[in-house]
Amino acid sequence: MAWRGNFFIALTLSALLAGCGDHPAEQQWQTYHQQLANDLDQAGIERANPMNIGDFPERSARLIDIPETRDSMLNIYALRECQITSLIAARNNQLGRVAPPSQQWLYERTLWQRLSTCWNSDVPEQLSDEDRTRLQQLTVTKTAQLPAVSWNAIFDSSEWVKSFSRASQPLATVDENTITSQLEAIDYLQRMTDHQFDLDWQQDSSALENHLKTLQEQPLTAEVLRALLLATQRLTEANALLAQQKDVTHCLRRWEPQSLERLVDTAQQWLTAINRLIDAQPVDKPIAIQRYQARWLSLENAQAPWGQFQQALTEHQALRARFPTCSDN
């Protein structure tokens, strides 16, 4: 019976390995490679597996350390006119302590809003010197900490982290509705970040959670990056075949890279939004995030996936231009 189990395992592994090449994004490149090889009377194009994206930094490396603010509830009660006692009490209960990062973000911003509003009202005049000083110090502390709180809320959320998952596939098709909803999710995080010190701007808890849920539905950052890596690999392989052809009298059938053009538009739009959000916070970004951003997300670094793809595409277009276009298309 043991041989049957081993046979089943081997069969399953073979199916999984075969399935890698059946991914829609890969099939498009297989078709194009075969077209080029046929046009040039070559047996085929030597192919290799593209690299995967790097690991997203560990939690401890991507978060900013924020000292815990401690004070007795008696002292907090003395500031009850600021309407923060029930807010802090809810935060300190058992459920409040295990709230997800998004809810902690909402709590900290609401606390800052109430403290700032209170400090700029006539309440401080009614407080004792000691309580007035306490209110001032607490307001200053929470104001200084808010950008780091906002940063941690995003980078500690499972929804954000999942967007960079290595356990993903290259983006095969660009669904406009999906891309739009994902961009709207990033835009809401951007607006929360941009308006974090705006007393008149009110965050919406349900909107925030819904947008985070949208991000969790698809690891779009990873899919875009892996699609760029795949495209770069396949273009580089095609370039090698074209470059070694001494006889440039062969005609090439027209290349209709509409799917590649959609990838270019989506990747540029998505990476621009992601980089803008990462750069929005007035904080010293953790070194690990700086390195990850430069290596994988940058639109300027020639060694990042976007830059490597652009180089491979430019070279491919130049190499194709050496050959005439077949007239029977």
Structural summary, described in words:
The chain is mainly α and 329 residues long. It folds into two domains: 26-54 and 168-329, no CATH class; 64-155, no CATH class. It has 16 helices and no strands. α2 (24-39) runs parallel beside α13, α11 (176-194) crosses α12 (205-217) and α11 packs parallel to α14. The chain is elongated. Residues 1-20 have low confidence and may be disordered. InterPro entries: DUF3080 (IPR021431). Pfam families: DUF3080 (PF11279). This is DUF3080 family protein. It comes from Vreelandella maris.
Characteristics of this structure?
329 residues; mainly alpha; 2 domains; 16 helices; disordered N terminus; DUF3080 family protein
| Rg measurement, Å | 27 Å
The percent range for helix content is 55-70%
Runs in which pLDDT lies below 50 for 5 or more consecutive residues are: 1-20
Estimate nothing, just give the exact number of structural domains: 2
The count of β-strands is 0
Instruction: Tell me the strand percentage band.
Output: under 5%
What's the story with the biggest beta sheet? Answer: none
Distance between the termini: 57 Å
- Principal-axis shape equals elongated
Instruction: Look at the helices and sheets and give the structural class.
Output: mainly alpha
Q: Please report the number of helical segments.
A: 16
Along the chain, the helix and strand elements come as: HHHHHHHHHHHHHHHH
Q: Return the average pLDDT rounded to an integer.
A: 89
Protein name: DUF3080 family protein
InterPro entries: DUF3080
